[in-house]
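Postdoc handover notes: sequence design on the structure in folder B. Input tokens:
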């Protein structure tokens, strides 16, 4: 099994075989968004998706006459109204823990602006630009309505804050939805009123600010043709709609005929609204790591957005040269 961020190293090492001939023979029930293609060749088949999207206290929004936000400006407006009504001092939360989570929030928002992380056909970074600055300014503005310990918050922390009734709007992973909506869970009164919506858009653009992730399968290049074909057929059998519909809440399935429950709508609506996939190239992990380590000074008000982005590019270049991606 492979996923968005585990496939690129296998591709770089030349360990994956193209699957197009098997798709043509046995993939009649595959949807186009299940075909993971690199340079025009199908290298993996996705069967489930994940993304972050909005989880909101519908009761609080309703009491204040606020429509569920669809943009980050509307999220900020809702947070301001909740604070001014004296309901919560810190109504927002996001996974900003320094490291992977913080880098991920930048990636989410930068993708929504159509930003490119690298020069075309190159590993040279290109994030120190107006889009990068706009993303950082939004992330900092959000912290005005977030708990002071925002640089320590993970997805698990968001769940606890939300179900404890301490925050009203979070951008949370769809894969964690069941624990937030559990009528027999820690906070059934909050679960009952929770609204799900696509990730918000940013800056007048219409792309949701959340990267799309997938899990699926590929087939190793070094297995025999007979074993590869048999493996593909077995996976197609396992990816039947009946299997997905027997376990509708186990994942957000990318399987034809899947009857998605309401709990899957946040992820599916983010996909259908034009969410962009997390970049799949062998050096994106180095960029993500540099973002996670170099943005904390900016988030704490210790440097400018431009300097933070320059620091990210410098840290990335050092890693990319060590890994042989840059001269």
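Designed sequence:
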């Amino acid at each position: 099994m492979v996923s968005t961020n585990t496939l690129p190293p296998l591709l770089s090492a030349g360990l994956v075989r193209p699957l197009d001939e098997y798709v043509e023979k046995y993939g009649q029930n595959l949807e186009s968004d299940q075909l993971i293609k690199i340079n025009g060749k199908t290298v993996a088949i996705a069967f489930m998706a994940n993304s972050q999207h909005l989880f909101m206290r519908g009761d609080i929004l309703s009491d204040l006459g606020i429509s569920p936000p669809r943009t980050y400006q509307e999220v900020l407006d809702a947070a301001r109204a909740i604070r001014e009504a004296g309901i919560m001092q810190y109504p927002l939360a996001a996974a900003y823990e320094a490291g992977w989570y913080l880098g991920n929030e930048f990636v989410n928002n930068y993708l929504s602006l159509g930003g490119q992380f690298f020069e075309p056909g190159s590993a040279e970074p290109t994030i120190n630009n107006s889009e990068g600055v706009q993303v950082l300014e939004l992330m900092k503005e959000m912290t005005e309505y977030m708990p002071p310990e925002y640089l320590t918050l993970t997805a698990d922390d968001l769940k606890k804050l939300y179900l404890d009734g301490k925050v009203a709007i979070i951008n949370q992973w769809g894969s964690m939805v069941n624990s937030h909506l559990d009528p027999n869970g820690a906070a059934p009164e909050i679960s009952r009123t929770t609204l799900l919506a696509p990730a918000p858009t940013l800056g007048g653009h219409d792309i949701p600010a959340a990267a799309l992730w997938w899990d699926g399968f590929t087939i190793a290049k070094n297995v025999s043709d007979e074993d590869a074909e048999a493996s593909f057929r077995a996976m197609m059998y396992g990816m039947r709609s009946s299997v997905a519909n027997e376990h509708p809440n186990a994942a957000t399935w990318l399987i034809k005929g899947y009857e998605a429950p309401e709990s899957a709508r946040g992820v599916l609506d983010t996909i259908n609204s034009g969410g962009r996939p997390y970049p799949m190239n062998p050096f994106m992990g180095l960029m993500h790591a540099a973002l996670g380590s170099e943005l904390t000074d900016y988030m704490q008000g210790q440097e400018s957005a431009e300097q933070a982005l320059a620091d990210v590019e410098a840290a990335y270049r050092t890693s990319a040269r060590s890994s042989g991606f840059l001269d």
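Context for whoever picks this up: The radius of gyration is 21 Å. Don't rerun without checking with the PI first.
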